[in-house]
Each structure stands twice: as C-alpha cells, then as structure tokens.
Amino acid sequence: MKVIGISGSPRKNGNTEFLIRLALEEMGREGIETELIPLADKQISPCNACMACKTDKNRCVIQDDFDPIFLKMKEADGIILGTPVYFGSATPIIKSLIDRAGYVCRQGQNFFYRKAGAPIVVARRAGQNFTLAQLLFFFLLMEMIVVPGSPYWTFALGREKGDVATDSEGVETIRKLGKNMAWLLKKICD
C-alpha cells in the first residue's frame, strides 16, 4: 500500500507540508509506504478546456510537471491533498492539478475510483471550510472513498512557517486523520 501527500503550498517546508508529514508519519507507523510531493517548485498550468483528453484518452497534452505527479496519483492507493487558504480558496497550483487530473479521468479511465482520499488545509484565520469542500468535491466526483473524519475538520491555523505546530488541536486532528487513513486502507486494500 502506498499513500502520496501532495502539498499545494508555494512555500517549501511550510505549514502545509508539516501537516501532511504528520499524517504520513502516522501511516508509516502502520507499515504503509508514503511519499510527500511538494508542488512549490513545479509548473502546472491550468486546464485550458482543449478537450484533447476526450480523444487522447488517459492523458493531458499540456507539457509541464503534471504528468509525473499524475502518474504517482494513479499508482497510489491513497491521496492526501493539502493546501493553504489563499483568499478563501485553494491555491491555484493544486486547483490546476485536480482540475486536469479530474478532466483526464472523466474523459478516460477513472484511475481514482475507490482510492482513499483526505484533505488537509492551513488557514491563517478563515476560509478553511470552503477550501476543505473544494478538495472533498474532487474526491467525491472521482468516486473516491473519503477518509473517516477526525474529531474536527482537518485543518490547522497558522501563517508563518511553523505556526501550525502550536495549534495542538489541529495537530491532533491531522494525526488522527493519518491513523484513520491507515485503518481505511487496510480495509479496502485487502
């Protein structure tokens, strides 16, 4: 079993990566292989609605960093998507990733069908519920199995690097998410 955690933050080693690592560590303790994929240094253009994926099935024709990440998403048993809140929404790069991945899968084979999915969000103060919904809608439209919740929404508060580490409730919520994802994967991958 393998889970990838994709950080949609433009900051390397920031709060979003910190939280994803916490969840991945919990899964690692359960013997699940994990990988963190930061998008901070990647170029992923938005979908341009060319619809080439309708005829050239199972791939996107835009040439950038999308393909290697999409391949890892296809191969994984579980996917964590993490993003900070930018003006009440997910970051443009993670939105570009899920829009293009979704289009390719909707026009061809849905590679995400019945995989486990979990969202993680970082907010300075507000916008986390709408941003969580954006990520959850992707999982639901792809017919993924959303990881059973934690004691609260899967987000933590912070602005500067390291701030989320002081949000004890947020940290515990993300750790619980990692444990729940490990439990779910052991149920659906047997």
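(ticket continues) Second input and output from the same batch:
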Amino acid sequence: MLKRIRNQVLGLSLAATIFAVPAMSCDTALLLSIDVSSSIDAGEYRLQIDGLADALLDPEVIDTLLLGQSALAVVQWSGVNRQGLVLGWDRMTSVEAVQDFATRTRTLQRAFVDSDTAIGDAIRFSVRQFSEVADCNRRVIDISGDGPQNAGISALIASQTAEADGVIINGIAIESIGVAMTNYYRRTIVTSDGFVETARGHLDYPRAIRQKILRELAKVTG
C-alpha cells in the first residue's frame, strides 16, 4: 500500500515537471535617463515626466512591455556627481505593474536644478545600474537631452565603454532649431547599434518618447 502511494506521488511530481510552463525571462532592461540640467526649465521638465508617463500607459507600449517581461528604471542627471536613480528597477509583469510605474513616474520630483550637462557622467552612472538586472537579455539606455556636454568625462568615451560592455544607448535629441542636437547625439552619444529619435522641441517629446520605446522594444515582437 505504501509502495503504491509512493509511486503515485512520484508520478504526479514527474508529470508536474514535464508539463510545467517555464517563467518568461526578461528580454530588455530599459533605463530611462532624463536630462534635468539648467537648460531644462520647470515646464520642460513637466513635459518630459508627463510625456514618459503617458507613453507608458499607451496600450501598444503596455502590450510590448508585457510581452518581453521588460524591466524599467528611471535616472535623472545633470552635472558632475549629479546623477540619481529616482525609480529603481521594476519588472513589467502585469498591466497593473506598468500603470503603477507610470503613476510613480508622473509624481517624480526633480532631483537636481541649476547644474551643468555632464552626459558622459550620466552614461557611466546609468551603466552601473544594470548590475541589478543581470538576467535580462538586452541592456538599453534611453537618454534624452536638449544640449551638448559642457562638463565631466568625455561622452564619446563613456559611450564607447558602454558599448564594449554590451550596453545599447539610444537617444532623444530635443531640438529647438534645426537638427544640431540630432547630429551631435549620432556622432557622440548613441552606440553603433543604437539610434536617435528627434523631438521637435519639448512639446514634441511625448510623441518622441512613445515612438522611441516602441522601437527599442521592437526585437521582442520581431
């Protein structure tokens, strides 16, 4: 009798092992790195924060985040030694998780004011944050800004170092006149496997960030 019960238990355990559905792994760890240097006024800061929150609530963005079980985090940066992880890593495993992350994004307080633009330092700081999501297949920095570097370590060297470490850097170049920032980001900021999305001024940022997130996660859906 005991032998029969033991065999039944072993059989159930084996069946559970055979038919268990493995948990989906994280496809992309996406770090959203936001410029809050002195060139960004209070209204422009609000456009960036609200634009990001709105983009995360877009149905197509939600579907793509969930499909890849993506991880998200937010960094704010400005001058030398002025970088902060203002929203730590969260896994997008449900609609509620995405909605909660968007809500916390919208209520973020500005981390720094009246400071330089140290893009290289921001990249270096952002790369260090990926140690918490080592299981994700892709590591992507989404960095936005409206001005060139004027302080800190070389942005180009920081970008090259990040690429050597397997990190992809994409950019949102916020333009005021022409495409000077777009060209600067292409030459200096993004990695060879990255891209630049152009925002035609801060008012165009919400559209640009939505488009950029969808493009960054496109490999999830093929």
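Agent notes: The domain at 23-221 is CATH 3.40.50.410 (Rossmann fold). Confidence is low (pLDDT under 50) at residues 8-22. Closing as not reproducible unless the customer responds.
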